[in-house]
Design brief:
CATH class of the largest domain: Alpha Beta
CATH topology of the largest domain: wza like fold
Structural class: alpha+beta
Helix content: 25-40%
Order of helices and strands: HEHEEEHEEEHEEH
Largest sheet: 3 strands, antiparallel
Number of domains: 2
Distance between the termini: 88 Å
Radius of gyration: 25 Å
Number of helices: 5
Length: 182
């Protein structure tokens, strides 16, 4: 039997360099797990265990803010970044039960890059701190839309909010309680 040959010193040096670069490359590349929820991405939520008419209020795509939150009907802001989808589903179920909105909801969540989820937008303009398109959330009120744009500036008038819908202009006073719920 022939003796096993030993790699020469140049091959060993080359292999060490290649190994070092591979380790460095692996350290620099973020680990992206399937189903990982990321800021700026989106999640798809479906609910069962509630009346069919109520499912439409929850089911759909939710954009994840740059701070890592989504806004859910009746329970508000929910931190989603850094939470596994099954753990998040249980938290949302618990929040709906604790708020006595639903007695036995079953939530399913699918993380997405956001590319496949259509997000409806509403444009908030005028004397607000951050005018422009804002993500529309189910159950969003006129007051919440104004606040999503940073609220009124010192020149903004919360008592004369104009809503344009289907070519018509409507004026609302958001100081009035009943108008805050529009």
């Amino acid at each position: 039997m022939p003796a096993a040959s030993c790699p020469d010193s140049n091959t060993i040096i080359l292999m060490k360099i290649l190994l070092k670069y591979t380790v460095i490359l692996l350290m620099l590349c973020p680990a992206s797990l399937p189903g990982q929820i990321e800021a700026g991405g989106a999640i798809q939520i479906t609910i069962q265990g509630v009346p069919t008419g109520e499912q439409g209020r929850i089911n759909g795509g939710y954009p994840v803010s740059e701070k890592g939150f989504i806004t859910m009907w009746k329970i508000g802001a929910v931190k989603v970044v850094g939470v596994e989808t099954d753990v998040l589903a249980r938290r949302i179920e618990s929040a709906y039960m604790e708020a006595e909105i639903y007695t036995s909801p079953v939530i399913q969540i699918v993380a997405d890059s956001g590319d496949n989820i259509t997000v409806q937008m509403v444009t908030v303009g005028g004397k607000v701190r951050s005018p422009g398109p804002k993500p529309f959330r189910r159950g969003m009120t006129l007051y919440q839309a104004v606040m999503s744009a940073g609220g009124p500036t010192e020149f903004g008038a919360i008592n004369r909010i104009a809503l344009f819908r289907n070519g018509k202009r409507y004026i609302y006073d958001l100081n009035k309680g009943e108008h805050k719920l529009l």
